[in-house]
Amino acid sequence: MADDRHPLVGAVDEGTSSTRFLIFDSKTAELLTYHQCEFPQIYPKEGWVEQDPIEILKAVYECIEKAVENLKALNIDPGDIKTIGVTNQRETTVVWDKITGKPLHNAIVWLDLRTSSTVKKLLAKTPGENKDYLRPKCGLPISTYFSALKLRWLIDNCQAVRDAIKAETCMFGTVDSWLLWNMTGGTEGGIHITDVTNASRTMLMDIHSLKWDKQLCKFFDVPMYILPEIRSSSEIYGHLTVGCLKGLPISGILGDQQAALVGQCCFQSGQAKNTYGTGCFLLYNTGPNAVVSEHGLLTTVGYQLGKDKPVTYALEGSIAVAGGAVRWLRDNLGIISSSDEVETLAASVDTTHGCYFVPAFSGLFCPYWQSDARGIMCGLTQFTNKSHIARAVLEAVCFQTREILEAMNKDSGIAMASLQVDGGMTKNNLLMQLQADITGIQVVKPSMPETTALGAAMAAGAAEGINVWSLAPEDLTTITTENYLPHISADDRDGRFARWKKAVEKSMHWAESETSADTSLSIGGSAPIGLFIFLGFGLAILVDITSKR
Residue 345: what are its φ and ψ, rounded to 5°? Predict the structure, then answer.
């Protein structure tokens, strides 16, 4: 082969609804090939979301094998792959037995709501039932979102977990820990670790010392021996023990949103990115300072690119439902047959004609932290059709992002002039234009949208002992971008945003008042397929919105 061939880096991107393995050129950041596998969500009860950890692991192995086959078909030597990184859905909680290697329960997914009662019990232990009681230590509010709550629920409700804890064979981790333990040997010497970004999402790590905290573990009554060792986001952790890449080092781990921060090269304080996936996550680099938000944002670790390197922190605005609402249109209501169709449908009307949607299927995250909120649609009339609803779903993503941006601007004291974006939903050009219109700032989309996997590859390739990816500013590959500028007036965007905020108010405390009369429609996960109740002139009209016209 020619002497100009470049070292390659692989990245496992384990998301909420699918897994991928992507292979990058370390010198150009070019994506050479990838393979993707979807895996099912499990819904045991309303508001509960689980995944089978074994299926997640199988999907990872399958994606690695298929992507390597693709590489061979391109006449590229898989031996050029020098290392791999891992990026993962965060907060999703796995418990397993270190003797058998088997999960003790299905993984509880980050947006699962079963811990609402656990939240109430824990709040009762705090002065004034203050959900921000632990923020000074862990940067997070007491919420159903985070891993410690899910682990506490498992201990309280799963006998297998209690038995394993008593026998001291229980292991806990976020998805990265589960994957790394298995990929490096499992019961035959697998390493039990996590990185600082994933650990910062558990509520069990002191965000300042970057260590598991005895007081936090005592508050949640979690035995510390079940926790993985905390490592940096970029170092050699171990080596693959199975598959076609057996023996290859694993040298990068980042939670998916932090990986996107790295992939977007947001290495300077004040830089920010927004990722549009199942949920929507805006991270703002605050440098070496763990800034405590006064406006409902999270304080999180952004990255630590080496065990001897300084840690970089970030403020985060987390939105539970973004692309998840589009899948809801497809899977629950049948309005569209594929997610790609939502853009065409929404573009067939010029406005929502007063229809506003709040996708609080799992409560509201930033900046409200209201687990009792539920999905709601307001402003419906007999004129409303599925096109208006599709457009309202896209606008809801943009309104939520504007709320997060306003909180970021208040906490930082500096108004953001542009927004860097990535994630699967950024393929939707209408969504990107709506985002620019509703925020009133430029939206900047990279030509290569796989920035989450790219960030994991960068961390892995830059690790000490690997050194095939330079993160020096002069060596970072410039990625071309597509820019979207706002096209509507400030009065228009502010008026629409104010009306959407009224809809948000309607969604609050819905879980506690589901039987009360209201002129808006509750649309949680159990809504009847293809049906909406249109309320107007005092009459309830049942309409099949999926019928052909």
Answer: -65, -45
Q: How many CB atoms lie within 10 A of CB 508?
A: 19
Cβ atoms of 531 and 517 closer than 8 Å:
no
Percent of the chain with pLDDT over 70: 92
d(CA 454, CA 9): 9
Residue 368 tokens read as: 């409200």
The answer to whether residue 65 scores a pLDDT higher than 60 is yes
Greatest CA separation for the chain: 77
Cis bond before residue 367 (omega within 30° of 0): yes
The single-letter DSSP state of residue 412 is H
Residues 58, 63, 69: CA angle, nearest 5 degrees: 130
- Render the burial of 406-436: b for 16+ CB within 10 Å, e for the rest: bbbeebbeeebeebbbbbbbbebebbbbbbb
Tracing tokens 């905020």 back to the chain, one arrives at 501
Q: What is the DSSP letter of 157?
A: H
Q: What is the mean pLDDT of the chain?
A: 87
H-type alpha helices, 352-489: 386-412, 429-439, 451-461
Summarised one tens digit per residue, pLDDT across range 405-436 is 888 888 877 778 888 898 888 889 999 999 99
Question: Rounded CA gap, 526 and 522, in Å?
Answer: 10
pLDDT of residue 531: 34
CA 208 to chain centre: 23
What would the pLDDT profile of 254-300 be if each residue is shown by its tens digit? Answer: 999 999 899 988 888 888 888 888 888 889 898 998 888 888 888 99
Give which of 172, 174, 192 is closest to 182, Cα–Cα. 192
Residues contacting residue 185 through CB under 8 Å, at least 6 positions apart: 191, 238, 241
pTM value is: 0.82
